[in-house]
Amino acid sequence: MFGAVLVAGPRQAGKTTMLARLTDGMNCATLDDPILRASAGEESGTFFKDNPPPVFVDEIQKAPALFEQIKLLLDRERITIGEFWISHCTFTATGI
């Protein structure tokens, strides 16, 4: 298994619903929440101390700095089991 699993797709495709069911009982950080989004953007280095793995991060495209933190944690900790479950909306400017 991989340290991180990313599900990407268009809006309303069922990414969050599917991952929420797969990660039931796991920490969940939805970046639709403006407070969590601000924390992820401004303090990405400590975000996973407040939201420790295993964690489901919903709407990660709203805080792209978290990708680097996930990579650092995976490399440093040598995690081989799904600790990060991530949804990414591929919404475009055209709304498609």
Largest sheet: 4 strands, parallel
Query: What is the C-alpha radius of gyration, as a whole number of Å?
Result: 13 Å
Number of domains: 1
Molecular shape: globular
The total beta strand count reads 4
pLDDT averaged residue by residue: 90
Query: Are there runs of 5+ residues with pLDDT below 50, and where?
Result: none
β-sheet strand percentage: 15-25%
**Helix and strand run:** EHEHHEHE
* SS field, number of helical segments: 4
Explain what the structure shows.
The protein is of the alpha/beta class and 96 residues long. It has one domain (4-89). It is built from four helices and four strands. The protein has helices spanning 15-22, 34-42, 47-50, 65-77, and strands spanning 4-9, 27-30, 55-58, 84-89. The longest helix is centred in the C-terminal third of the chain and has 13 residues, at 65-77. It is globular, with a radius of gyration of 13 Å. The model has no long low-confidence stretch (mean pLDDT 90).
Properties at a glance:
96 residues; alpha/beta; 4-stranded parallel sheet; globular
Structure summary:
The protein has one domain.
Secondary structure blueprint with pairings:
Layout: E1 4-9, H1 15-22, E2 27-30, H2 34-42, H3 47-50, E3 55-58, H4 65-77, E4 84-89
Parallel strand pairs: 1-4, 2-3, 3-4
